[in-house]
Amino acid sequence: MTDEPMPGPAGDGSTVPPELTELAAALGVQCEYTDHDGRLQQVSVSTVVAVLEALDVPASTPGAVAASLDRVRDDEWRSMLPPTVVTREGREVQVPVHVAEGADVTAWIELEQSEQPVVPASATPWRVTAPQATATGSFAVVRGPRVQLRQADVYAEPRTVDSRKVARATFTVPADLPLGWHTLHAESGGQTARTPLVVTPERLELRKKVARKQAWGFMVQLYSVRSKDSWGMGDLADLGDLAWQTAHNGGADFVGINPLHATEPVLPVTPSPYLPTSRRFMSPLYIRVEDIRETAYLSAADRSLVEWAGEPVRELSEDSGPIDRDAIWEAKKAALEVVWTAKRSAARQTAFDEFVLEQGKGLVDFATWCAITEHLDGRDWPPELADPSSSAVTTLRNALSERVQFYCWLQWVADEQLRAAHRAGLDAGMRLGLLKDLAVGSASHGADAWADAGVLAQGVSVGAPPDMYNQQGQNWSQPPWHPRALAKAGYAPYREMLRTVLRHCGALRIDHILGLFRLWWIPGGARASAGAYVTYDHEALIGILCLEAQRAGVTVIGEDLGTFEPWIRDYLEERGIFGTSVLLFERDAAGAPVEPEAYRRAALATVTTHDLPPTAGYLAGEHVDLRERLGLLTEEPTVLRGQARAERESLVEALSRRGLTTFDPSERELVEGLHRFLKDTPAALVGVYLTDAVGERRAQNQPGTDTEYPNWKVPLADSAGTVVLLEDLFGNARLRSLVGVMNEEEPEVDPPR
C-alpha cells in the first residue's frame, strides 16, 4: 500500500485524500481556491503532491504522506528556538523554547545597537577565500543592552520527539522593545541557541508633505523614453532630466518607473523588466557612459573609443522599431570597459570601496555570477560551480577578480546615477521623487537563483491562475521563496534585497504584493492553470518590509490586483501600505464603474496598467484584436468585442453624467475625462501613464506571450507612431493639455488612515 502512488492524475478533478489535505494545510498548500469569477476550484492531487515535493516534503505515496505528517507535527519541537521571531512594536509576544524535560532554561535578548559593513580579511573583497558575513547578512551587528526575559506560566504537555522527551517553556518578549533586528538567546543544560527577533512598525505613515494634498506623477517605462543623447534606450540621465522637466514644467510630484533590475551580462539580453537575473542589483544598460566622472578625463584615444562604441546605437533613439537591447549592451559594455580602466581619484576610489563593503557578500556573489557567466560564454555551468561557497567558485572568483571588480564597479556607477536622478526631481520641487518598482521574482537561471538557491523552491515556478485578461493563466518562469527555508535564514536574503531596492527613491511599488501572502506555484512542465496557492508568513514579510521602508523613509505601494481574499486589503491598509486602484478594473456588482467617492484614500490610482494597451487603444477594443491575432482567446472574439464596446459606453456615461466629458467625446477628451475622474477620487496618489499623455496606442506588454509580440521593446511614440523624444515632451500638445488637467487645484484633505 505504501508504495502505491497517490491517486488522481493532473487535472482529473479527483478529490484530495484527507491525509494529503491535512499535510498540505500544515505546509500552507491550498487544495482549493476561488477564481476570478467567484467559483470554487479544486486543485488536482498530482499538483498538490508536486508542490509538497518542492517544499522538500515527500508525498508521492500514502506511506510517504503518513511519515511526513508525523514529522511535520513534531517539527517545531526539534529546535530550541523558532527559526525567526517577528513581532510589532508595542506588542507583547510569547516565544516557545524547547529543552530536555526537567532541564532549567534561561532566555534573553541582545538589542541591536548599530550595523556596520563587514570588512573582509583581504584588502580586496572580491578576492577572498569566503566573503565574511554574519547570520543577518553582510553586516556585523554591534549589540546593545541585554534584556532578560521572564518565563510565562504556560504549561504544555511534554512529548517524545525522535526518541527523546522534550518540554516546552514559554518566555514573554516585552512590548517596549525598540524597532530593529535583535537577537533572542536561550540556554539550557550547557546548550545554547539564538534566533533573530525582528520588531517591526505597527504601520507606515505617509510623509506629512504628501499626506494632505493629492500628488500626481507620470508612470513610465524608462527604456522607452529616449533623448538625442541616449544610446538607443532611455537611461538614468534621461530619468533625471524627465524628473526635472515633469516637476519644473509640469508640477508633478513623482515619476514612477519600471523595475531597473539586473539583466544578463552576455547576449541575448532578456527584455522584460519583470524577469531579471537579480532583483537586488541594477541593469548597467541604464548607465549614461558620458556622465561617469572619469569619462571626462580620458585620453583623446580612449575618448575616441567611447565615441565610436556609441555611434551605431545613438541613431536608434529616433527609430520607431523595437528597442535592440543586444546592440545597446554590446556598445555600452565596450565603452564602459574603457572607462573602467581610467584612474580614479583617491576620494572616488574610497567611495567605490565603501560601496562594495556596504553591499557586502551579496554584491560580491552577484559580480562573481556575472564574471563566471561571461567566462563560460554560453556553456553549461559545471556542477562544481553550482554552490557559491564551493572551493571551485572561490578559485574561479580569484582567477576572474578583475572582472568581478568590473561588475561591482558597474553597480556603484549605476547607484550614483540613480541617486542623481532622484535628487534632480526633489530639487525641482517633487514631493516624492522616484517611485521605483520591485518585480515578483527573478529568473530561474539568474544570479539570485544561484546565490539564494538555498531559500528558493526548486522544480516549480510562479505565475497566476486564469483570469478575465489572461484566460490561460500565466507562468512567470521564476522560482518562489521557500517559506520555511527563508525563515530559517532569518529572512536575511529578503532583507538585504529590500535594503538595496529602497535606496534613492521616495516610494516603492511592490508588483503583485499578494505574493507576500500567497503565490501560485506551477509544477515544472505543467500548464499555468494547473497550479496551487502556497501561503507565506505575511506578518513576517510585510513587517520586515515596513521596518526597512521606515528606516529608508520610503512610502510603500502594493499592487493588490487579481484574485485575492478581501481581508488582505484591510490588512495592508492597517499596516500603512497603499493599494492600487485601476479605473478600468474598478467596477461595482452590476458592472458599472465605481463612483470616484468610493475609491480608497490610501491608494495609487491610475486609469490603466502596463499590461494593457494605452487607454486610447484599449477603449477602441485593440486589446481584443491583439489577443485574437496572437491566439490567446478562449472566448468568441465577437462576444469580447461587444463587452469592450459596452465597457466604453459605461465609462462615457459615467463621465458625462458628472460633466467630465460630452456624451460623444473625442479620444483626447475621453482620456482627459478619465483623469479628471481620478482627480475627483480621494486617492492620495494619481499616476498618469506617459503613453496616455502623448497619444501612444501600442501596448508595452502582452501577457501570455514571449516572441509573438515585442514585449518591453516599444519606444514612446504619439498617436501617429512618430517617436517622441525627451526634448520634445513638453512640446506635445496632448501632454500639455493633460498636465493642465492634473494641475487643476485640489483642496487639502485629511491624511489617509
Automatic annotation (TrEMBL):
Say yes or no: keyword Transferase present: yes
Which residues belong to any copy of the MalQ N-terminal beta-sandwich domain? 81-201
Q: What class of enzyme is it?
A: transferase
The record's listing under InterPro entries reads: GH, Glyco_hydro_77, MalQ_N
What the entry lists under Gene3D superfamilies is as follows: Glycosidases
GO MF entries: 4-alpha-glucanotransferase activity
The entry's keywords:
Carbohydrate metabolism, Glycosyltransferase, Transferase
> Catalyzes what?
Transfers a segment of a (1->4)-alpha-D-glucan to a new position in an acceptor, which may be glucose or a (1->4)-alpha-D-glucan
One of its Pfam families is: Glyco_hydro_77
Entry's EC annotation: 2.4.1.25
* NCBIfam families linked to this entry: malQ
The UniProt similarity line reads:
Belongs to the disproportionating enzyme family.
Q: What protein does this entry describe?
A: 4-alpha-glucanotransferase
Q: What is the lineage of its organism?
A: Bacteria, Bacillati, Actinomycetota, Actinomycetes, Micrococcales
